[in-house]
Amino acid sequence: MNAVRIAPLTPERFDDFFQLICALAEYERLVPPDHDAHQRLFRDCFEHSPPRYSALLAYLGDALCGYCIFFETYSSFRAASTLFLEDIFVLPQWRGQGVGRALMQYLACVAMERGCGRMEWLVLDWNEAAHSFYRALGARCLSQWQLYRLDDVEFARLANEAL
């Protein structure tokens, strides 16, 4: 069996990466990103200084199997950065072969190298396979925290109230 190889996203592999994002959208029953999002994703990774996110690609042999997107946030109570995992996705035909674990292990090394105090991510409530996977890694679900969100329409309304 081939070992999983993890590599940083490069501009040359960006379209393949984007196809994986579209596959994740399908899996999560979401509308895939459009052409404008494609352009912003490229710009934010390769043309923004500093990059707004980092991405890794996972391979078994020459086959592209999955990806992850991550960036840092900051915890005032830990006085340390947090490595936030925005997406992790392995194509269905490659699941159960250590690809997801290899991505998480690589990210744990990145978090250690950067001096992060923790890693965090969100999981859809219906995705029991993901919950089981993360529990097997030793992660715990923080049930006391509730996610709130303002989308662009709502934060524009709120910002305009201040003017």
Report what the structure shows.
A five-stranded mixed β-sheet has the order 1-2-3-4-5, sandwiched between helices. Helices cover 37% and strands 25% of the residues. The chain is α+β, with helices and mostly antiparallel strands. The mean pLDDT is 94. The protein has one domain: Aminopeptidase.
Beta-strand percentage range:
15-25%
Strands of the largest sheet, in order across it?
1-2-3-4-5
What's the CATH architecture? 3-Layer(aba) Sandwich
Query: What gross morphology would you assign?
Result: globular
Q: Uncertain spans, ≥5 residues at pLDDT below 50?
A: none
Q: Give the mean pLDDT.
A: 94
CATH class: Alpha Beta
| Assembly state of the chains shown | single chain
CATH topology: Aminopeptidase
CATH homologous superfamily placement: Gcn5-related N-acetyltransferase (GNAT)
Distance between the termini: 61 Å
